[in-house]
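INFO  loader      accepted 1 record
INFO  loader      residues=355
INFO  predictor   begin
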Amino acid sequence: MTDDDTFSKAKDMIFPRNILVGHGALPQIARMCSDFKFMKQGIIITGDVTYKAAGKEIEEYMSDGGYEVSVHKTGDATFANVKTAVEEAKEVKANFILAVGGGSKIDISKMVAKEIRIPFISIPTSAAHDGIASGKASLKMDIGPKSIDAESPMGILADTSVISKAPYRYLASGCADVISDKTALMDWEFARRLRNESFSTSAYALAELSANTIIENSKNIKPGLEESTWIAMKPIIISGIAMDVAGNSRPTSGSEHMFSHALDILHPGNALHGEQCGVGSIMMMFLHGGDWMAIRNALKDIGAPVTANELGLASEDIIDALVEAPNIRKDRFTILGAGIDRETAEVVAKTTMVI
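INFO  predictor   done
INFO  writer      dumping tokens
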């Protein structure tokens, strides 16, 4: 049964109300806040680098627009940093949050917004994964990253002139993350057929559109071109919205993400999340019997890693993660089933040229 085939279920679907993507979008932030009828006191959650990239400008535009915003600089997305940001937002009596930065700053803002029940606007300075628009936050823990229900942004303001100045690796990683929706969707369909898992045809269609758009434009996504950022940003945002439609991360997170999370636990610090998911998607597509070469070629076109070496990992690291991946989320049924042995994992990685 899909969510489009029955009227017996009711669930919240919370989407961004305003999405502005384009060159020179930053000056529109005060207008966006005014359109949302935000009160005058807010807080910018950012970091040292991202404050220089866009936060300072945002602060000035908000001041010119008659708003009073405090600036809270933070680090990685951890529970400790969320707690500190919550305390700061309460202290300054913030009525809204402007999340200026990459994934960690936006994830912290999502958690703070949920905790104290105020809206936030997502203002990415890079696009390393598809969390810009979703209501899911990924927090770092000793046992690896944990995905947590948080707040969806009320608005998204993505200035391509800012994002294109970030290291190209981040954009390539974000594209790889969206491409990996292909195997996440196959896992979801697999679980629907075999386990009668709840399914959303609308969320499926959005995630599939996002992945296909990146793949079809892979030869046009190159370093040093703001147009590449413009091409990639819309699919990256729509991929995040697919999670809001589904009410969970199923449309964008399957066995390839479990592989990535296994790497985060076993061999952390070598590659970006989206990079690992892209490589994982190559191997999971092979297990599904699909066109894994199309995934590999699109990643190569974009300049994302396709091998263990390009991820900064050894062959054994890949095998370790493939074997461990099914244990990451035992509640999530995927093509990995109950698991694969090391011999099978080696065959998969070698056949797909990952090792």
